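Researcher: Structure prediction, please.
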Amino acid sequence: MAGSTTPAARALVICWLPPLLVLFLHACWSCGATERERTLAMIKPDGLSGNYTEKIKEAILESGFDIIKETVVRLDTERASLFYAEHSGRSFFNSLVKYMTSGPVLVMVLERPDAISKWRALIGPTDARKAKTSHPNSIRAMCGLDSEKNCVHGSDSRESAAREISFFFGDPGSERVEHDEL
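Model: Predicted structure follows.
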């Protein structure tokens, strides 16, 4: 019979399958294969109006990120206030909301291993003035002005990334977004 296997052949496959599986898994672990992670990236109004979008996207792609989703949105006062709700008691809150509603923003979902920490490293410190000295090759050094108008946003944790991605790309269970990043 064509296509049939003998009991001896089946036994041979069964005997060799576990060692081959172990070798395969070891090769994956030793080559550094890691879980891919997603984060939210936002180019703020000053980044879009300053025509930095293409430079920022180029830096994203050159740093090994995949852009999974992107959209340009214009936040109204209610949505900007909701996005930055954890800052509502701070003195800069009204100014931040006014700034974030001053023009459109480009929101992206980025993916790669360690996406959150790699994106935060690429964007640099929150205060763009400090970034120009301490991280001159960062995105904020390239196009940010200060700690509020710092050109880009990045999620600060897996939890924040999940909430922020849901905020812009949909998940009816998410209402409040908390993060420590402006």
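Model: Confidence is low (pLDDT under 50) at residues 20-31, 172-180.
Researcher: Thanks, that helps.
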